Amino acid sequence: VKVKIPFGNKYLDAIFSVPKKKLRYGVILTHGAGGDMNFPQLVSLAAYLAAQGILCLRFTCKGLNIAYRTKAYKTVVEYLKHSDDYKLSGVFLAGRSMGSRAAASAIHQLSQDDDSDDFIQGLVCLSYPLHRPKLQSKLRDEDLLFIRCPVLFVSGSADEMCEKQLLEGVASKMKAPKKIHWIDGANHGMAVKGRTEDDVMEEINVQVFSWLRENIELDHK
């Protein structure tokens, strides 16, 4: 279902992947610095999650400024929260690369609001860009350290923007419950020598869904 989400004096293009059975939880997905919401990994994940009964809303925001992208993400969260078509108990924020930075920043900012509630259930970071290539001294970890909700990282062990030891070091300092799933040999784009793109995407999809299900079940207890 295609929608246009009001954002200032313009609109954000977005698509709902709607499950056949109504579930109480949803996932918001957005892309990295390049591309848009039709990036193959996002399309694949949205279709997989919807088939498992989880509503997915993916959106495009072309700005390369992280503050602008974060503002757009917060707008999408509010849109879904107040949607009459989809009454959700909670939502997980997710993104690829720069999109995961925007998601983390949105969670940090929304958690500081006086009226913040538990609508946001967790964060999924696909290829989180912890640092620029070959610039490991400047880590983009400021939002991660403030987050309290559960976090899943899915990263390639050969990601040139997320050195394995550095992400594990940041994770050890985080106060949130967290899990890291390493895609063996994958680079920042999740390409792995000797494996097809579909094969890698299936591994990502299964990992994300099983983590979501775990956290939804914990919430129900």
UniProtKB/TrEMBL annotation:
Coiled-coil intervals, chain numbering: none
PANTHER family associated with the record: TESTIS DEVELOPMENT PROTEIN PRTD, TESTIS-EXPRESSED PROTEIN 30
Domain KANL3/Tex30 alpha/beta hydrolase-like stretches: 27-205
SUPFAM superfamilies per UniProt: alpha/beta-Hydrolases (SSF53474)
UniProt protein name: TEX30 protein
